[in-house]
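Work package 3, deliverable 3.1, input record:
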Amino acid sequence: MQGVEGFIYPNELELQWSVLIVLYPFITGLVAGAFILASLERVFNVQAVKPTYRLALLTALAFLIVAPLPLQLHLGHPERSVEMYLTPQPNSAMAMFGFVYLWYLMVVLVLEIWLDYRKEIVLTWQKSTGLMKLLYGAMALWSDNISPRALDRDDRIGRALTVIGIPSAFMLHGYVGFIFGSIKANPWWSTPLMPIVFLFSAIVSGIAAVMILYFVTCWFRKVVVDMACVDTIATYLFYAFVVDFSLEMLDLIHRLYESDESFRALDFMVKTRLFTSQIVLQIIVGTIVPLAMLGLTQLVRFREPVRRVIYLVAGCLTMVGIFAMRWNVVIGGQLFSKSFLGYTGYKMEFATREGLLPAILLMILPFVILWVLIRLLPPWGHEEKTAARHA
Amino acid sequence: MNQDRRSFLGSTGTLLVLTASAAIAWEHVLAGTPEEAPNYTATDHWWGMSIDIEKCIGCGTCVRACKTENDVPREDFMFRTWVERYVVDPAEYEHPKVSSPNGGYDGFHEQEVKDPNLKVFFVPKLCNHCAHSPCVQVCPVGATFESQDGVVLVDRKYCLGCRYCVQACPYGCRFIDPRTETVDKCSLCYHRITKGLTTACCETCPTGTRVLADLKNPKDPIHAFLRDHKVQVLKPQMATGSKVFYNGLDGSVR
C-alpha cells in the first residue's frame, strides 16, 4: 500500500485528522496568546505595550470566530455538532470545547472589547446616519449612557474581566493540549506536559502574531513604529520562547532517556518522515534561529531599523516554527502505527473538503474579519490618526 | 375577551414548548438504547470472547463472515475483525514480522519458514469490548456507549464523525464508514447475540478458535477456559478492562 512501511493495523491506513485539525490548535493558540499580550497592559499595567492593546484584542476575536470552522468542516456530520451542547458527554475532553469556547468568546472577549469601546461606539452612533447609525446603535445596545460614572464602571468591570480572562485564556489553550495529552493510546501525544507546552507555544505565537500585525498596520497607516512598544513585546516574546523551548526540550530529553516501548518507532519517525517539519522547520528554523536573533537584541543594542528587521524576521520564523509544531503533533501523532511496527503517510489533497485550499481560505478569513473589525472599531486613538494624516 | 386570548395563547405556547422539550428529551433517552429483542434481559449477560491462538489456522473465514453479516465495506483498510500473521524470532521478540494482507480476508498464502527456531502463529483481532473503554470516554456526545451487557456499541444516528474515538482506541479497531460518515466497529453481532445466536465470526470458525463468552452465565465454558489456560489480553498495560481473552498469546503480539 502506498506510503505504508512495516506493519500497521489494517484500519490505520487512513489518517483521521487532517491539516484542518492542525489549524485548530494553531488558531486557538493565537487567540490565547494575543489575549495574554493584551492583558499585560490592562492588568499588569505595562504601559509600553499600550499601542497594541486593542489590536491584540481584535486579533484574538478575529481568530476566535474562525477557530471552530476547521473542526466543523472536518466533522462527518457537522449538522449534529449542536449535540455537543445539548447532550455533552461529561467524561469527554472534546465535549467541553463548546462550553470553553462560548465562555471565552462571549463572556471574556466580546464583553471586554465592548466595554473598552463603548464610549467610541456611542459617539459614532450619535454622529453617523442611515445604516451605520443602525449598526452602531445595535452595537451600543441602544444605550447611550457614557457619563463619567458609567465609564468608570465599564473600566472596573473590564479590568475584572481581564483578570478572569487570563485563566480563561490558559484554560482555552491548555484544554486543547489536554485533548491530545490525555490519549493514552498514543505515546506521541500522551504526556502531562502537553497542555503546558501548548500553552506556552500559544503565548509565543500570539505575541509574535500581534507584533507582526502591529508592524504591518503601522506600515499601512504610514505611522512610525513605537520602538519602546516593540522592544518590550520582543522581550516578552524572547522569555516566553525560552520557557516554551525548555519545556519542549524537557519532553524530548525525557523521551530519549526513558526510551520506552514506543521510543524506537517514534525516533525512526522523527529521523525520517518528520525530519523536515520537526528538526528543520520546528526546531532549527522556527525556534533556534528566532531565539538566537531575539537573544542577540537583548545583549546588543542595534540601531532601530536593524532591530525592526530582526523583530519582523524573528516573528515570522516563530510563526513558521509554531505552525510546524502543531503539524508535528497532529500529523506526526498519526504517522506511526499503534503496533509500533510501521508507518503510514499523509498526502494532503488540494480542493477537497479537508484539503489545502480550504485550509488556506480558513487562514485568510481571520485577517478579513480583523480588517472589518478594525474598520468598525479602530484600535488606534484619535491623536495617532491625526498624526497619520499629516505624515 | 383579550384576557381569554392571552391565556389561550399562553397555555398553548407552554404546551408546545413542553411537548417539544419532552420529545427532544425522549429522543435522547432512546438514543442510548441498543436495539430491543424480545425475551432478552441485558442485565443478565456480560459479553466477551475467548480466542485460542493455538487453534487458529489463518483461513480468514471469520473476516469474510463478519464483512458479509455486518455489511462492512470491502475496502482493504476497513475491518471489524481481522487476522494477523506473526513470524517471530524468539531472541528478537521485540521485532516480530507481522502481516495482514487484506486483513486476512483471503486467508494467508503458505509461507515457507526455513529456520526451525522461528515461531509462526495467527492472531485474530476485534474490538475488545473494554469495560473501561477509552473510546467511550472520549466520545463528545455519547454516541459510542457501553450497553448494560458489556458491549461497546455505536449509535450511527448520533455519531458526529469527529474521529476522536478512532484516535483513542489502542487496538486500531475503529474506522470511518465512508457511506455514513460515521464510525464503525465490531458490535459483537449484537443483533444476533440478543436473539440467542452466536457472532458470525464464532459461528463460522472451523476450528473453534473464537468462542463467544457470557461471563455472567455460570455454566458458560469461558470460566473453564480462563481457569485452565494461561490467558492474556492485548496490551494489558493500557488497563482498558478488555474482555477478549487470548490463550497462547505470545509476548511479541502488539
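Chain A has one domain: 5-383.
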